[in-house]
Amino acid sequence: MPKSSAIVVVNAGSSSIKFSLFGEDGADLSAFLNGQIEGLYTGSAHFVAHDVETGPAGEKRWDGAPISHDDAIRHLLDFVRGHLGEHQIIAVGHRIVHGGTEFAAPVRLDADVLSRLERVIPLAPLHEPHNLAPIRTIFDVAPHLFQVGCFDTAFHAAQPPLAQTFALPAEITDRGVRRYGFHGLSYEYIASVLPSLDPGLARAKVIVAHLGNGASLCAINAGRSIASTMGFTAVEGLPMGTRSGSIDPGVILYLIDELKMGPRDIEALLYKKSGLLGVSGISSDMRMLQTSPDPRARLAIDLFIYRIGREIGSLAAALGGLDALVFTAGIGEHSAQVRRDACRAAAWLGVELDEAANEAGGPRISTQGSKVSAWTVGTNEELMIARHTRQSLEAA
Ligand code: ADP
User: What is the model's pLDDT at position 84?
Assistant: First the structure.
């Protein structure tokens, strides 16, 4: 890839689009410009961009006029083209939450692939349409630009069949109702940096805790995902900011039969009103809960830790042992308290926390004598997408 080339990474959600521009940095890539448009469809969208070297690079507000994904990506492309300097865009990499059963690796996007991806929408109706929207707009604005889709499910695609299967009749499983796992780009990035922390981790049994607004754990054996707490959707597993995590499926039947709730009400309950927010009744934000004197805030945090402890036990069983525990994402990278309590919940497996190292932010947060090492590592899903996009381009 020529020195002046730039790769755009796009991460489109329901109400925002984030972007980063990556250029060559030695053998790897690094971001030199990033930003986002927030508040899509609200009538008060806000765009900001930040140059990694020089600081604020652009800002715009739309007051009154609702901005769609299409409007937003057109604005971003215009902005990016005006701020490229000597750089030239050679490709765009997109974060796509679900690859379904068909897409188990990054894929070059064209009209045929896009229509096959549209068939995956029923598996992730809340996210997939937003992920796909910018691809269409870019086909329209710049038909020859090389576009690559990178999937949050792909890192988990090679999990053993037993880890992917629900105990449901075959005709349901055959419709794609199975466990996929998410946060794969984050886990893949963490797996890529493990050997630089300790060469032995390349072949180790590792549990990675991605603890952000969305939260999950992944069991990695010698760099490969073998099990994860999220399954068919990103609501399984741990309680999250506003998602319930695993609950007895019988609860859903009770909500339908006794409380007469419909599918959209149940969806809102499980995705938007539960988790830390639902239990505390205060906030989905870990920082707010940690400073609140309200016992319900304490209960929400305690439940989060308790579930992490149980799921660590479950994934350690799937791995047949444990060599290392790694924390990442907003809570995992920044909350020494959550890391300490989660390590205590895993003490029986041989995790011995180094309190001072944990307070200092790591990267290693376990004692030298700890049987299982513990770490905190910043994740970088955008870099993973940029790397995949460059690889796809080089292989084309
Ligand atoms: P997302 O999943 O939306 O990318 P993040 O990875 O940014 O989310 O994580 C957001 C979570 O991280 C919030 O619950 C926030 O309170 C928490 N967080 C960020 N910084 C801290 C901190 N210093 N202490 C505790 N929690 C923090």
Answer: 80
